[in-house]
Design goal:
Elements: H1 9-16, E1 44-56, E2 60-75, E3 78-96, E4 102-124, E5 127-138, E6 143-159, E7 163-178, E8 183-201, E9 204-215, E10 219-230, E11 235-246, E12 256-267
Length: 269
C-alpha cells in the first residue's frame, strides 16, 4: 500500500518549492523513506541569462553590450515562456575644429531590444497549440518598432537521443511603424519557427532557431545559431551568430544585418 504523507507536510513543501530564481530542473519526483524530504520538481526550466560586453579605447572609444534572459514555466499541460534580448553599441571619437581645438563626439551605432512571450497547450507528446507575442524596437531599422501576435501548431520533425527539430507554423497579425513615410502598417502574416538542437558532447551543444514572419508589405527572417560549452553546472561560454533580413528596407539601409557574439551564460538552478 502507498505510504500516506502527513497533511502538515504539504504546506511546508509548497513554501520550500517556490523558486527564488528561475531554475532549470528535469528532476523526477522521488519519495524517500522520510516523507518530510519529498522534493517536488521545479516548474521553471531552461531559464538562462546571457551577457556580452566589449570595450576599446585609444584615439576612439567603442563600447558594445548585448544581453538575453529566457525562462520557461510549466503548469500542468500549459507551458509559458519569456524571452528578452537587448543590444546597444556606441562609439566616441575626436575631431579637430577649424580653430585648432579638439571636440569629442559620441554616437550610438546600435540600439535594439526585443520582448517575446508565449503560451502553449500540450496536445500530446511533442504536439502543441501556441499563442505568441513579440515586440521589437530598433532605432536603426526601416521599421523602428513593431508588434506581432500569432497562433500556431507545433510538431516534432526529428526526435533522436542527442538531437531534435521542432516546427511551428500558423497565422498572425503585425503592426509596424515605417520610418520612410511615418506610417503604421497593419496586416496579416504567416509565421513559422524551426527550432533545432544537437548535443555534441555532454558539455557541448549546438542550437539553431529560424523565425520567419511574412506579410504583404515585408518578410522578416531571423536566424540564431549558437555553440555553447559548459564550464560547470551554472556557467557556460557561448559563441553566437545572428542574421536578420527584411525584404523591404529604406534606400540607405541594408536588407540584412549580422551580429557575432561571445557571451557568458548563466543557468538558474
Amino acid at each position: 500500500m502507498p505510504r500516506r504523507v502527513c497533511p502538515y507536510v504539504l504546506p511546508v513543501l509548497l513554501l520550500l518549492c517556490v523558486p527564488t530564481a528561475w531554475a532549470q530542473s528535469e528532476a523526477v519526483l522521488e519519495i524517500p523513506e522520510d516523507p518530510s524530504k519529498v522534493v517536488l520538481p521545479s516548474p521553471w526550466s531552461g531559464s538562462t541569462g546571457e551577457l556580452g560586453f566589449a570595450s576599446a579605447s585609444g584615439n576612439s572609444t567603442t563600447e558594445s553590450f548585448n544581453a538575453r534572459l529566457k525562462g520557461i514555466y510549466t503548469d500542468g499541460d500549459w507551458i509559458h515562456s519569456l524571452d528578452v534580448t537587448g543590444l546597444h553599441s556606441s562609439s566616441q571619437y575626436t575631431t579637430t575644429e577649424d580653430d585648432g581645438s579638439f571636440r569629442r563626439h559620441r554616437q550610438t551605432t546600435a540600439n535594439r531590444y526585443t520582448v517575446g512571450a508565449g503560451s502553449a497547450l500540450q496536445l500530446g507528446e511533442h504536439r502543441q497549440l501556441t499563442a505568441s507575442l513579440r515586440y521589437e524596437r530598433d532605432d536603426f531599422a526601416t521599421y523602428d518598432h513593431l508588434g506581432t501576435f500569432g497562433v500556431g501548431y507545433v510538431t516534432r520533425l526529428l526526435d533522436r537521443e542527442n538531437a531534435y527539430l521542432d516546427a511551428q507554423f500558423g497565422p498572425g497579425v503585425r503592426r509596424a511603424h515605417n520610418t520612410e513615410n511615418d506610417h503604421n502598417e497593419v496586416g496579416l502574416i504567416g509565421r513559422g519557427v524551426l527550432d533545432f538542437k544537437y548535443i555534441l558532447t555532454p558539455s557541448t551543444q549546438l542550437t539553431n532557431t529560424l523565425l520567419v514572419e511574412s506579410g504583404s508589405y515585408n518578410t522578416f527572417a531571423q536566424n540564431d545559431f549558437g555553440l555553447a560549452v559548459n564550464m560547470n553546472s551554472h556557467f557556460a561560454l557561448k559563441a553566437g551568430w545572428q542574421a536578420r533580413h527584411n525584404s523591404h528596407a529604406s534606400a540607405d539601409i541594408k536588407n540584412t544585418d549580422t551580429l557575432a557574439t561571445m557571451n557568458v551564460v548563466y543557468t538558474f538552478k
